[in-house]
Amino acid sequence: MVAVEAGGAKLVWLEDIRETISAADKAVAWLLWQRPLKAQDPAKPAVILFTSGSEGTPKAVVLSNRNLLANARQVEARLELWPEDKLLNVLPVFHSYGLTGGTILPLLVGVRYFLYPSPLHFKQIPQTAAKLKPTILFATDTFLTAYARAAGDSDFESLRLVVAGAERVRAETRRIWRERFGAEIVEGYGMTESSPVVAVNSAAHGRHGTVGRLLPGMRLQLEPVEGIDDGGKLWVAGPNVMMGYMSADRPGTIVPPQNGWHDSGDIVAVDRDGFIEIKGRTKRFAKIAGEMVSLGAIEVVVHGLWPEGHHAVVSVPDKRRGERIVLVTTEAAAEPNALREASKQAGLAELMVPADIVTVADLPMLGSGKTDYPGARRLAMEMLGLDAAA
User: Fold this and answer.
1) In what order do the strands lie in the sheet with 322-329?
2) DSSP 3-state of 301
């Protein structure tokens, strides 16, 4: 606070303003609440958010008021939200998921909501839910797993809807929340550049293994990717797609998406009903002996084999094949033979089985709850004694 004031900014505390509001002020506000005090331009920048950096250097994304409001309304059209609902948002508002889904959306719909300061308080959040009795929870698979471990069977019994995004939801997570708390998890997909939601399942129209259908008002196109026959790289356009990136070389300059289309960097497949299946990030594919290999597909098998652990499948340099696959895991019992057998049963090719298993106490994580894959890769290379510059 001292630094902010020293920089010339004035802090105004709402608690102080509240004491000065008279009955006349409230009456005027009630009569004129639909008339803005000042004309607004929805096309102007509203926020600058940074991407998670789970695959590389974070980028500064500029979102307009129109982007944010459009995305909130798009999500409202897909999910059933009611004024009687109570939403518990444990996600940070500096992350687009926590800002749009957990803060702006309930404000627009008229849903009561409670902001919790940190998603990392695994023991306190179930206790908070037991007292607040929310009906809706926004979270990620990693956080949901941690909350379930610390929760009593009745802590989340008030929930009717759990919305999960930012990472793939594991089958084990779905099972635990359904059996222990009677809550169904609906999975969605998005990115900061789309404010952030692109697609989401709903309780009435969902399909397991997918992230739902494209939101209303959006368009998509798939770009062919060499070595991928049943999908392509996803490009999206719509009213929720960002104004652009803030240029690192030219501060203050916004670089807009080309012709309104944003390259998601994700490889997806779309079925005949429009449901989207995420195959993986383009950066989450390895090229081994000329074959494109999905690291995400291997992670699915690993999660199924050791559901209690946290896992990251990464690729490291290999002189003979170009790259080789390494499993970084918190599962102390992880061993190659079991992984090889599980991969065989899942129909994975032999070259997709991790060549090495690195066991760690904790996986590197980002503040958003996502796995820090560059960090996991550095950890693997360090423990395997590989050249860090490779």
Assistant:
1) 311-318, 322-329, 356-359
2) helix
